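Re: Re: token formats

Sure, here are both.
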Amino acid sequence: MNRSTGPKYVQSVKFDATQRQTVQELKYHEMNASPSSDDFAIYHRGYVYYVSDDILYRVVLGGEKDDAEVIWSPEKVDDTEILNGTPIFTGNTLEYTLWADGDFIYFMVNIQNAEGLTRYSLFAVDTANLNVSQVWATPDKGEVGEWETTGVKVSQWYVMSGYIYFYLSGGDMWRTELESGKTEKLADTHEQTKYGSAIFSDDYMCLLNDKPVSFYGSTEVVPGSMFRSDADTIFVYALDGTLTKEISLKGLYDDPGDMAQIDMICCSENNIFFLTTGMTASAGAGPFAGFTGHKGDINLCRADIETGKVEVIYTLRKGQ
């Protein structure tokens, strides 16, 4: 899906980035300035599922934009059983993370309870009849303990074969059986890193030992921050919680310049793909002295789970 401020299109492209073609235009709301939900979509069994302005749509791949079906929206709340509060709609309530597993599409919604606190809750869409039901909510700290964003959201989640696997930054790796609601801890990941970011695949959870900070180059820890720093190791866990590999990223810091952030993208088979973003120094004053943000190189990197080899495979942007 194109990431522009104009009309939104589904495009196809070969794995070598050639032969890009526009497949179709999507219906979207021009007034929604936030790219967080509008710029993400998934394809599953002949349909494109996407979110625009708190509305979840489905349209046949290659179909007309006006034929898009509304699956869930603020107007459909009364038709959905909400278990733990009242949905709040603040311009980006539906998480951009959509997922497909078998006959179901999954999405997250912020739910506000009677005390005014929010919890991220997982909803399932039956693709046969488009019925929507709530199937899971962020666990209470009394059940799983404290973590970086206690009581609000998980760091990462993954649905497969009737289970949701999730990582709580600073609070371990877990899974819940969606049908029974039974939750079990899979790994004590806090033994490896106090914070951390994770990605999942059908075989692994890959955990990066970064920490949340106030801005690029800062050492001040700010739980829940989008800025991360100090990552130098990826811990690879099997989905049963077994720690299978530790991959050092310290060699990436050998090149000249400061490393601002490492962001994992995906894990495919035995390869972990991630971006490294560099910083360039400045002569500015005040708390930001010495930094101009992420104006260094942006590199696409790959880590081989079997061998532990780490390499830069493509430079997306040269530093300024």
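Second one below.
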Amino acid sequence: MTLLQKICRLKNPPVKERYPKCINVPENIVRKPDPCIYSQDELTASPEQIKWENINIRLFDVGTGGFVRSTFGLEEGSSYRIEVDVRNCSADVVAHNTRVELFFAPFGIGGIVVGLTHIPLSQSLVNIPPGAAQTVNTVWVNPTTSVAFLARVSHPHDVNTINNQGWHIVRVDMQEPGNSSSPIFPIWNPFSGMRFIKVLILEEGPEKWFPQSEIVIGRFDDFLPVGELPDSLSHIIDGHLSGLGLNVPDTVPVGVNHISHLTAYALPTLDGPETLVGGVTYYIQII
């Protein structure tokens, strides 16, 4: 070290020498923001709580201003306003410059394997105060009839990334009391090496209309003899859930909404392990 460097060091000692009692704060206890959205991924440990009608994503018809629940059977070429609520689950750190993204995919379970199409938002970067929420929106012209929406948030210092994306996919059918219903939902097998798709059905309300609360696609049985799944990253199992047919009781009063949440998991063997594929919320409105 030269004489000049020694003199400079005496006048401007390193921070640790000027403040010898200072310590470095461990990375794991540094306070960080937690931008979040209702996320099915976060609830995989509690499958009975997973719903696919996302409370943080809403759709409105621009022409009428009315709320649109179903993402199935939309009018092609019509304009819809989409609102997305993004939250900061941190109690004391602002989530500055949180990025918000919105996409759509084909309607169905696991449609992400077909690809996501970006939907531009009016604002892609937001500042979210601790414990608060911000709403971003856009007007979107629907290029097809039936879609699934995916909203995603990201932040370079996010303390928890398991709650960063959420799906919104809903089908609404009208039925009269005493009739039967056979919903058809496309299902994609997004994972190589998976031989089975297990579908769990969570029905809200005191009455159960589906004959079973769980089915396994790929297993030969009397209920759904569809055989093993091909080992393919993008195989579509279109319509195999039509075997779920249910009967609407003839005593159900007009105006009742029967709500079911169908969640699918891929399995390499019948014993697991299970990997979340996707799902759909299914409404039956009694008319």
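The two ends are 88 Å apart (CA to CA). The CA atoms of residues 178 and 250 lie 4 Å apart.
- S.
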